[in-house]
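[Discussion] Sanity-checking designs against the backbone

I'm trying to build intuition for which residues belong where. Below is a structure token string of 103 positions. I'd appreciate it if someone posts a full sequence so I can compare it with mine line by line.
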């Protein structure tokens, strides 16, 4: 049996994939509308616990921004320092302080 790549299947089944994608987008749009209407109703009736409101608000803001084409992804970069890194930085600072006093 020959191996068929994903690209070949994608090209061959493109009409079906597009039709399915359109159908799913319609269903997701309808589900989103119903969920948002229920959320608004619960907000009006004060039925949402206060601890949940910031999460709801954050998700809604992200979805609105995504719908408007704005970037919604936040990439956080963290650098960890080892004990050796800290010692080296302290030595550098001390050396600079000594040079400042001598000059």
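Best answer:
Here's mine. Compare freely.
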């Amino acid at each position: 049996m020959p191996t068929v790549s994903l690209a070949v299947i994608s090209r061959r089944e493109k009409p079906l994939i597009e039709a399915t994608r359109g159908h799913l987008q319609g269903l997701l749009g309808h589900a989103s509308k119903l969920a948002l209407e229920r959320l608004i109703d619960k907000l009006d009736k004060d039925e949402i616990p206060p601890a949940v409101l910031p999460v709801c608000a954050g998700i809604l803001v992200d979805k609105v921004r995504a719908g408007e084409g704005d970037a919604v992804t936040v990439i956080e970069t963290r650098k960890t320092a080892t004990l050796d890194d800290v010692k080296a930085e302290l030595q550098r600072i001390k050396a600079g302080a000594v040079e400042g006093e001598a000059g």
